Queue: 3 jobs
Job 1
Amino acid sequence: MEIKKESWGVAPDGKEIFLFTLKNASGAYVQLCNVGAAIVSVVVPDKKGQLADVVIGYKNALDYFADGPCSGKIPGRYANRIAKGKFTLDGVEYTLPVNNGPNHLHGGPNGFQNQVWDSRINGDAVEFLYYSEDGEAGFPGNLKTVAHYSWGEDNSLKLILTAETDKPTVVNLTNHVYFNLDGEASGSVLNHKLELNASQWLPTDETLIPLGQAEDVAGTPMDFVEAKPIGRDIQADFPALKYGKGYDNCYLIDGAMPGQLTTAAELWGPLSGRHLEVFTTQPAVQIYTGNWLKGWGPLSGRHLEVFTTQPAVQIYTGNWLKGCPEGKSGHAYEDYDAVAIECQHCPDSPNQPAFPSTVLRPGEVLEEAIIWAFDA
């Protein structure tokens, strides 16, 4: 395995940004960076042996900070949503920043995804380390998180996530990488076929907080037990699809057992012939079809009032924002140009005692794995 480390710029806080390239003997490679421990590129062959990048991302390192899509990064300390930014643990209520309508999302605006992680090459792998201090974003406990990435000769990317704490806390870790198996610049993935090893999903309210009870997917547009095009039912008259303008929903993985790898999903690119199989030790998978890639998210409800001593104000309505930031091939992404398959625990688990626990206590080690296996 060939691993190269190079400088990729300087973060606003002065820390150096690094880009790591892991290339196997066939020439297929992945690129990672220490902003949010991100997956920047996955370059694998199609059915004709032609290499192409199959994950979306940005040309410039600084665009990985505070991007709405959280492209390729590890959000934390709690991926996904916590209702109203509050939870109670051991009788103590904790308050978190609210940054997604009325809810807390992905650790807040300064979550793990917007931090420069420590990084190193460790044998045939790359490791990223982040220390989250007690009280950061309102969460209790000093938390040490490590993301260990390795790239196989069989074109499989493996991520092992570990975390330890010195106080009881809650943790939910994933990687928010988006896939387009026909190539990151090839447009809509609504013709990709998706299959999920999940016969149940979690209905939500209109703010995407689970209502608490899992339901069968059978007979609904949420059913991917048998492979079907992502876009086949995406415009169905169904509450969940209207809330998120597409799929942004959590599925419970059939047969999931703690510490054991289970197939979560399979994805096929119709033009390239590429195929992705996703394995995980996590109990659930969030499917997000890039519903807001163009506009970077639904309205937050925030209000801004501006005061000044100046005599005039210039109004610019973002007439050219569409092309900014640039995707890796020099274009801006549109809605549904990629799909995120996020292996994780359930959203709002700290407030939902029926869900698998996300509580981590001193002396325990959280360890979860995700494997993305590519072929054509």
Note: Helices lie at 239-244.
Job 2
Amino acid sequence: MARIEINHLTKQFGSLTALDSVALQLEKGQIVGLLGPNGSGKTTLLKIMNGLLTPTAGSVKINGMDPGVETKKVVAYLPDRNALPDYMNTKQLMDLYEDFFVDFNRSKAVKMVKDLGLDINQPMKKMSKGTKEKLQLCLVMARDAQVYLLDEPIGGVDPATRDYILRTIISNYNEDAVVIISTHLISDIESVLDDVVFLKEGRVVLHKQAEEIREETGESVDKLFREVFRC
């Protein structure tokens, strides 16, 4: 059962503070929007949660464990850029995921690939940017994981595909999982969010339920976001 606890998490790159004493508790059964402009620390936070970066201070616990080998068994991560071998085709990449992850559900992956009209024999290097993003998402969401970390999953695709991706996210995670979606395209994902975290200059400036925001302010999450991050 997924539970994420983040305490006083700080990450510095030289003189730059990317995360500044971040504290969050995220429970299972939620789709959480990690929202903020570029440079707010969203990708850094996801990378630390996935064990790709080490904190300068503070801690992250996933099911009580530090990010590492054990958490990778339950965490499915979609990076903000392609991290898969370009020479492989869709079928080979499904084979790769099946070898690496015991929770990979191949039949689920095959269905998503067919729904999106992807060619299983086409190598990634011949795919468009949008097609690569679709394929990566299919592979990630085909895992029966406990934590999904999705960095800009709808950034480079058309509106119709965005709708399919959001339906895929909703229908392919279980009630014991937590899904974290990092994005600045709030209006496109607001309808699926349970919880909202606003990151600004590496700090959490808001953490509330999406419905609570709408009830208290009479505004959409997107409108509140635009007010908080107005230039």
Note: The CA atoms of residues 212 and 218 lie 10 Å apart.
Job 3
Amino acid sequence: MRALLREARRGAALARLEHEKGGLVVGHFVGDDARQVVTGGEDGTLRLWREEGGGWTQAARWAAAGKVQRLARDAGRRRVVAATSEGPLLWLDPLEPDARPHAAVILPDLTALGLSADGALACAAPREPLRGPHRVRLVDLRARRLGEELGGTRSPVKAVAVTRGGLLLTCSGEPFDVGRGQGEVEHTLIAWDLATGAERWRLALVTEVTCLALAPDERLVAAGTTSGQVFLVPIEGPEGARELVSAAVGRDLGPFRRAMAHGDGVKGLAFSGDGARLCSVARRSAGEDRGELRLWSVDDGRELRPAVACPLPTSLDLSPAGDVALLGTHLGRVELWAADPD
């Protein structure tokens, strides 16, 4: 009976937080446990949710200037920054029901948004650079001031992460069917020195890199691609990079077939609080509007349980204990799913 209950719990959402009627919604766990969630949606609001007595209620609601398109949180889960369609970056510090969001700077149409561990430095990647290559703009949120631009890639930046040790990690890429030669497209994971702007190392890949997750101890960064691959890369450099593969997933690549983590593009990655597990979510297969959730052992790369079918997500986060996954969706809500290995 316990085994059947566990399987039933995995195959359905534990809870659904209805942010709006349809539309893209992104979200994160905040606070010290899995009982608080912040969401942002196309309705132009940020909302704070709290779980009490087995149910979820809306504890606060803030108006945003335009649709909330991207959301990032700090390592301590007490600060968030949101990017809106009209341009203002909204900063909530601390994240409490009576907090007031600060409009930091105007940066419209971003492809990626990240927040430093202390929540004071935002890293924003505009879709179209003013000149030259695609770069990441640093934003001092406390001073509400634009900082310098770092990096430089031929393809748009898709995700960013900042380490306590002073590295800016960026991943970039775009599909090959954009009317340009393959040589003009850059699919890379790059580490930049925040202090000097110099490139520390890079990992070149053959497919578009779409998402990043930084391990809590900052020994590793996980990167997902549109081909369904998931890589674990040491922060010191790509020489020790390894790929996660599932025995249940194989793809035909020209004359040969190889195992991969997922059958199609990876949409999100998240580490557990102790860094021992990695959760990944992706499209189940090309053309499907459903997703799949997989759970991995970081130490040896084992898949810890069979994949679970879920909605196709817009974002992924894990609770501090690592046993609940939060999926943003295009359905106007976020959903909570079991992510425990047992």
Note: The helical segments are 2-10.
